[in-house]
């Protein structure tokens, strides 16, 4: 790995901020209505359902055949505020294990109320799931499929006490 010029990175961040970041009161509305769903691949449907619905308390909202791959399931979990986390399985297709790669998915951050965050952290402990706690508001861990998740107690639109919306 080569040397990193942090001063240059900081300067470039400030240039981008000055060029593109508009004050909240002058920022145009987004053309999007929200995140409809984010889809991942499940190695085992029931294991994934148990993890998300029973451990993390995200209700399963629907399961049906994937229109793009016969025999494959497409299933959804409620993340609140009309946001869904979806999964596919691909029986008979060797998709291999989850791989975190540069340029790919790093993690999915899901906001939960502080009391829920504490309860879910205890449930992860009881289930023997390893996690990394950061800043007293975030815990990072992997789902049964290998995807990295973050449960964050900060409110939607905030990161470490700073408004990001």
Textual characterization of the structure:
The chain is an alpha+beta fold and about 160 residues long. Helices cover about 25% and strands about 25% of the residues. The protein contains 3 helices and 10 strands, in the order H-E-H-E-E-E-E-H-E-E-E-E-E. About 10% of the residues are buried.
Arrangement of strands in the largest sheet: 1-4-3-2
- Provide the succession of SSEs: HEHEEEEHEEEEE
Mean pLDDT: 91
Radius of gyration: 19 Å
Helix content: 10-25%
Described by strand count, sense and barrel closure, the largest sheet is: 4 strands, mixed
Spatial separation of the terminal alpha carbons: 34 Å
> What is the count of β-strands?
10
Structural class: alpha+beta
What is the tally of helical segments?
Answer: 3
Principal-axes geometry comes out as globular
Low-confidence stretches are none
Please outline what is shown here.
By secondary structure, this protein is of the alpha+beta class. It has three helices and ten strands. 24% of the residues lie in helices and 26% in strands.
């Amino acid at each position: 790995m080569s040397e990193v010029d942090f001063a240059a990175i900081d300067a470039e961040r400030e240039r981008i901020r000055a060029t593109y970041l508009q004050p909240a009161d002058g920022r145009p509305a987004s053309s999007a209505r929200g995140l409809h769903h984010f889809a991942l691949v499940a190695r085992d449907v029931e294991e994934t359902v148990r993890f998300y619905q029973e451990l993390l308390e995200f209700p399963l909202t629907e399961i049906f055949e994937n229109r793009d791959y016969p025999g494959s399931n497409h299933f959804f979990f409620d993340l609140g505020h009309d946001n869904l986390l979806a999964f596919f399985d691909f029986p008979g297709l060797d998709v291999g294990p989850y791989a975190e790669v540069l340029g790919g998915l790093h993690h999915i951050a899901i906001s939960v109320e502080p009391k829920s965050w504490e309860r879910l952290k205890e449930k992860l402990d009881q289930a023997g799931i390893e996690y990394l706690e950061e800043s007293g508001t975030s815990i990072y861990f992997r789902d049964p499929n290998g995807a990295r998740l973050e449960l964050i107690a900060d409110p939607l639109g905030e990161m470490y006490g700073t408004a990001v919306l």
